[in-house]
């Protein structure tokens, strides 16, 4: 162990969800042969017994191996299981710096790391990317464990967008090329004039203007410079208006206030003969598959319909603190639910001969199920507004600040992925300008996106508390927005225009979006502003596809719909 002691100074536990979300804990490497995790205060990493109920008293530990930089994670007989990179740990399993650990089916997650991370120490997982998904990272009840969003939470480097020097060189090169062309043309004209001068000297001398007008040329050059896309100027003018949003919610029963759970059942695995827990599903009156929901007090085995550790982007739209963002960030119960990995390979239940019986296997949970729209509860049809989401926390962080400001949801669009929240802070806030340019948007239009992609490296700061009654030192994330550039690849409309019963243009069942091409930022940038070359916000970044080379943004007109006529004064 001598070599790794000399290089590694600390164990680092980076909490992603749960009561410790966004906190980093450090432990001196040389003084700890192992780190224990649980709800008892004797553990090195102690979890809140009330807020982290999925964690056992003595849940797990990470121990050093016999070789340098060799570590193992071990389940200490926990009730809810231990997961390493979404795979259940039976007994002990090797772990590497950068690996993700989850305590329980729906328990808190953290990343295991070393400070400094030695060369060659790398996480043991690969990144999986879904075909199309919202760009915010949403952890079901503190669990990011979906088939694709899991890996995207990792802080992997992202491809840099075009830099300042490269951009300026391109502009400079183009100007020089134009200038050389103009000079060559002028020289050619002068040669012709010289050759024909004596023949047409009278006519030429009578002319009051010259063939090449330097003033006109300079004016044309100024116009070309003005039309350039100055991304640096736009970023400088708007950085303080781009906010980072942290959120977590749970689904509740409006009548009783109880938490709503997805019901599970312990059955005997026919292949192994061993007991295993499966998620239960049923058909609603419309014939669609839904998870079997019940009140927490009535569900013996299950997991709450909830999300923790969610994050996204927003932007200030006026100086009093109103902020536009995506609906799937601040009202996630109104968007497609991301089921945890343990909800896969579940079972249907059907009512036969007066009782509920297990039926066929459900390999994949319903991908378009929206908690808010559920039609069943307690295995019975719902009537009225019985289910509602409740944000357990909704915090806004301004750029380059470690302070968090609580926010309130003001309005949620009924038709588009747009929502408005508000913070109350002293003084006037820097805000963006917006422009409804829907009718003028065409493919090829250059655009710029600002926000907080989760694949970008974190900037963190440690704050030693000066509060006598709370002496704990906290390590918090300090948001720093990034800039990405691209173009409008296509304009997607949800409504077809007709004339004489004939469809005049195409429409899409996907909805109203700008399809973006180029270096789109991917997960975490949801709710970020989409700027045109004049610095006006013309859209709200909302989703991406594939590896992030194709993105989608909601036209800003649907954000303006939430603002009302009294706030149109902030719009260009």
Walkthrough of the structure:
The structure is a single chain. The protein has 572 residues and is α+β, with helices and mostly antiparallel strands. Among the domains are: 2-125, Tumour Suppressor Smad4 (Sandwich); 164-228; 239-396, no CATH class. Helix content is 15%, strand content 36%. Strands 13, 14, 20, 21, 26, 27, 28 and 29 form an 8-stranded antiparallel sheet that branches.
What are the key terms here?
572 residues; Tumour Suppressor Smad4; seven-stranded mixed sheet; 7 helices; globular; disordered C terminus
Give a brief description:
With 572 residues, the protein is α+β, with helices and mostly antiparallel strands.
Q: Name the beta content range.
A: 35-45%
* Low-confidence spans: 1-5, 123-185, 196-226, 503-509, 567-572
Tell me the number of strands.
40
What's the tally of helices?
7
Helix content: 10-25%
Question: Could you say which overall geometry the principal axes of the C-alpha atoms support?
Answer: globular
Mean pLDDT: 79
* Gyration radius, rounded: 29 Å
Distance, first to last CA: 64 Å
Structural class, from helix and strand content?
alpha+beta
Specify the biggest β-sheet.
8 strands, antiparallel
